[in-house]
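[Meeting: bench + compute handoff]

Bench side (C.D.) handed over the final construct sequence. Compute side (W.E.) agreed to return the predicted structure before the next meeting so the bench team could plan truncations. Sequence as handed over:
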Amino acid sequence: MVFFKTPSSFETTLEDQLKDVGNALLNFPSAIDELLTLLGKVENLLANVEQAPSKSMCDALLPSMKALITNEILRHTEMDVKILVLSCITEIMRITAPDVPYDDEKMKEIFQLTVAAFENLSHVSSRYYTKAIFILDTIAKVKSCLVMLDLECDALVVKMFQTFLKIIRSNHSPIVFSAMETIMTMVIDESDDISLALLSPLLASVQQENETVSPISWKLGKKVVTNCAVKLQPYLQETVCSIGVASDTFCTTKVGQAVDATFKLVEDSTILEEDKVVSFSSPIPHIEFIIPDKFNDVMESKAPLFSVLPTVVPEMKQVFRVRLLLLQHYKTRAEHPYGGDA
């Protein structure tokens, strides 16, 4: 049985005001100034509503909740309206958390609009900047970004990461950096699987050259990768090879350590005895002699190259050494497809 709090006189007044403004919004005023005024009132009223509201407050919220997701309002073309609507919906998500206020399809649309709205953070002087910060910070605090994982919005999550790393500025409020770090860390920690698409922009951001080109983006990427080093390490080796950069091009400390930890395994005598390491004094000219059928199959089907190695090289720690040789050889073969000399 669910028990609701008895509303106070302040809450009763707030409920009445919410009903009035919500019903007015349902009528969709044609004049944009009137629409903006109503949305501003809704936003201010919602800010006073606490989480776990009373039943009567829940009823008072319904008109506004319905109005905000009508096509006329949610898909309005004016940016002023878009930002105010998202700010109101973010408040509603805060109030209803951890439950979501709308069905799956509507939530997907809301998240798409939200990620697009984050672009407004790139200009501190923009009149939408403060609203965008509020939306970002609230999403981080109530963890509503995790709903994107439940809804399998994988491509949208990647876009969000890319947006954060692209728009972060040194003159942003510390709240912006902190909220982005929190969101990205939570998403990675709660993900069942880390895709190459998600990890690649992170690793690109922490390359040493980016420390000079975009130091704040480098710092954000470094913080997130460091926070998630344990979760990310199983994925780092293959991703580093896939994006074609050496481990020593990444930043130092925990980020660099996490990125090249697998590379260093073959050098750690406490983990692997030297006489068990497959090492070569020079690159193998023809890798086909080691895995002739598997290698050719991979090239034809574009299957994950390294997934076949354990079937050919029984000792897994040897795979790490062979991976690098395969990558180098693959690049050479790509440049000279008929096997001719350079």
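W.E. noted at the follow-up: Residues 145-261 form one domain. C.D. will use this when planning the next construct.
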